[in-house]
Amino acid sequence: MTEGPPPYEDVRMSDTSSSALPRQVADAYVDALIELDPITGTYLGVPESSRRLPDFSPAGQEASAELLRETLRKLDAAERLPGADSDAERRCGRLLRERLTAELAVHDAEEGLRAVSNLSSPAHSITEVFTLTPTATDEDWAAVVERLRAVPAAYEGYRASLALGLERKLYGGPRATATFVEQLTEWGGEGEAAGFFAEFVAPGPASLRAELDEAAGQATASALALRDWMRDVYAPGIEGAPDPVGRERYARWSRLYNGTDLDLDEAYAYGWSEYHRLLAEMRTEAEKVLPGSGPWEALAHLDVHGKHIEGVDEVRAWLQGLMDEAIEALDGTHFDLAERVRKVESRIAPPGGAAAPYYTSPSEDFSRPGRTWLPTMGETRFPVYDLVSTWYHEGVPGHHLQLAQWTHVADTLSRYQASVGMVSANAEGWALYAERLMDELGFLPDPERRLGYLDAQMMRACRVIVDIGMHLELEIPADSPFHPGERWTPGLAQEFFGNHSGRPADFVESELTRYLSMPGQAIGYKLGERAWLLGRENARAAHGDAFDLKAWHMAALSQGSLGLDDLVDELSRL
């Protein structure tokens, strides 16, 4: 069995001198974090990380928390030094303090002892990191063997954390637990299906075939052992526990994902205002698609009669073409893109994950490009209306342009600001702004694509409503067309979401499970978009006729991560 991460004493930031400024402290933190978390190392493209996995046990979690505390102590000293008040140092120090404080609050509340999800958990990180682990050479595959051999210990550390949570009555959600058991079953393989790890090693070299198959078999067995424990011990142990987390836990998670202490009641009201605005626009476009119909009747019509792509390989290639066309149209007109930022790959997501598409950033040296991932959920026919604005969101000009640009300018920021310091609501807000920008620029010229875009926007408005509503058990407003005056429950949330989405039932169910197990994350799309739009409006007002949208875009994308506390202020200054 491969050894776990080195002892914490070996990765202390002892080489960070007492004269280090905030950006140096931030980058020393990244170096130390990679030692504790080789999954982060793989995301950044660090070759040495490919052989290991993190320690997800309670001791491993505490080691990570102590690194947060030590870094904050060093930041205290760094911010008192001459030069720490420059814009570059101030911005980095502010982000580092906010992020590490939010992460430490989550740790101190022992949230890591009940980390069960259908999308974001240590087990999901283990599976996803293999899709990013290099496999170009025999040496790469030898590293894969070692990483596979580390899977059982990583799963066991995660199980130990959940077991301690059970002991302390810190329960994950029953709904997410049931879904996670199903995912572990799929990763382990059912019937004639080989399972995730066996399929992953299938293309490996003949010279390592025995080692790869043996290590994949051990990883598969450990996934199924975790499945059995989750099903037979954990699920009965949390029976009757609530899925909603309540206001106190929700506020803590919301701070982590959004980088601000939100007025949750104001955010809930904003979600409803966007709902009513978008519903009116959707009705207008639906009339153009299918006269006499409502929005979701028109979307159902498009599912059958609209433009579509037939075949998995074909949809991957079509999405690649969509992104390539967007780059050609936008570069030089609304963005100035470096050559290495212009490259992005379309991929099909491995089975067993959540239903939502996603994006993975390029490695720091761009040897692994940015990639978009489409979960097919077993489908082979893909309506175009459901893909176009989604790929403007995930790819270009959405996640890829922002996160690849951060990587491109990392040497002028800090490694931290360009990578692990990412605030979810900043990135998701930009991606939703990118969808709106493409509508503003005329890239959604027909009612079919525009109705799909509005459906995606409506989904994000509904996320704000149901995510805050069901976790805080708020009252549904009197002017709502849906159960006015009642209080939200997960059942009502799923019904509401399904009634206001053109997406299939399995997608809706996956989304609701995601919101229940990642409280506060889903609201960042709309609230982040609002921050980006306000920042642009303020900058335009300040510059008047001299406002240059292309220059603003590039300056905005080159400032690195910021929480919503600071994003509007910084965008308004550009």
UniProtKB/TrEMBL annotation:
Biological source species: Streptomyces globisporus
Protein name in UniProt: DUF885 domain-containing protein
Residues covered by region (Disordered): 1-21
